[in-house]
Specification:
Blueprint lengths: L6 H21 L8 E4 L3 H17 L8 E5 L3 H6 L6 E5 L4 E5 L3 H20 L6 E3 L5 E3 L2 E3 L3 E5 L13 E7 L3 H14 L6 E7 L5 E7 L13 E9 L8 E3 L3 E3 L1 H5 L10 E3 L1 H17 L2
Parallel strand pairs: 1-2, 9-10
Antiparallel strand pairs: 2-4, 3-4, 3-7, 5-8, 6-7, 8-9, 10-11, 11-12, 12-13, 14-15
């Protein structure tokens, strides 16, 4: 029996389906192989599934177990209507796929302590009232809605500057893949067309070792309109075992003042500098406490 549809229409549908499959692969790239996928059947069932996955994730003492859950067939209206998702949201409206990052105690200790340290620096420079602490505010575009773990920018923006994007974003990962965090950094830097100037990733392993990377967007060319993010600074913190002292390799973390505030520093103002001591004894100690009490 011959199809009533024209060959051109069938070919178009085939091409559209292949494009959709490719977009799905790209959106889900770098997730751990043991990330589970659910079809969305309502918000209450989503929360039940997340609670089950979270408990299973915490049971793992090795590097196995994924901090992510995939939900398919979830409409943009559902995502817009529900603001209290049990985790960080990364959503594709065209694909109707939600990646939910489960936030554990080590993850939140890292994000909140980083926020507090940045706030202390802002107070010291008397710019606290000029700085917007955007937290996990969703940045929304037609093809993606995403939350960072922490984000910042000036309250007063230059004329023509979109309020959709922060100037600095922080992504924290507990037992996540390094490539996933790098992919998140690329999203903020490229999808914002350079409005996001700096991304900081805090990669926490179950062993307690921590890798902090400051990323920037390289020069954009016609050949590379969405370049790979460039690591400007890398700091590694190793948790001491068996009575050994913790060890930090790298320099203090320096976030350019201009990247935070979109202007040059004035009298009494300087880059946001998080010292080695603060990284080791404030940020890392809080994360390690979270690992021990998760």
């Amino acid at each position: 029996m011959q199809s009533s549809e024209s060959p051109a229409l069938e070919n178009s549908e085939y091409t559209d389906e292949r494009a959709k499959m490719q977009a799905r692969r790209e959106f889900l790239a770098h997730l751990p192989p043991d990330t589970h996928e659910y079809r969305y059947h309502g918000f209450s069932l989503l929360k039940e599934a997340t609670n089950k996955e979270y408990n299973q994730f915490l049971e793992h003492d090795d590097s196995s177990g994924s901090p992510y859950i995939i939900f398919t067939n979830i409409s943009p209206e559902e995502v817009t209507h529900n603001e209290d998702f049990p985790g960080r949201v990364d959503y594709s409206p065209p694909l109707q796929i939600l990646i939910l990052t489960m936030v554990s105690l080590p993850h939140e200790e890292g994000a909140r302590l980083f926020d507090q340290i940045v706030g202390d620096k802002a107070v010291e420079m008397k710019v606290r009232r000029l700085l917007s602490f955007r937290g996990a505010t969703r940045s929304k575009t037609p093809d993606r809605n995403k939350q960072a773990d922490s984000s910042y920018g000036p309250r007063q923006l230059p004329p023509g500057r979109s309020p959709e994007w922060p100037t600095v974003a922080v992504e924290v990962g507990f037992s996540e893949m390094r490539e996933k965090l790098k992919s998140d950094a690329a999203y903020w830097l490229n999808r914002s067309s350079g409005d996001v100037l700096t991304v900081i990733t805090i990669d926490i392993k179950r062993s307690g070792n921590i890798c902090i990377i400051l990323w920037k967007r390289p020069v954009v060319t016609n050949q590379y309109p969405n370049p790979e993010p460039e690591a400007i600074q890398e700091i590694k913190i190793y948790r001491g075992k068996g009575g050994q002292a913790a060890n930090l390799r790298g320099d203090e973390l320096r976030i350019p003042f201009r990247h935070m505030m979109l202007r040059d520093p004035g009298p009494g103002e300087e880059d946001f500098v998080i010292t080695r001591d603060e990284l080791l004894h404030d940020l890392a100690d809080a994360i390690w406490w979270g690992i021990d009490h998760k």
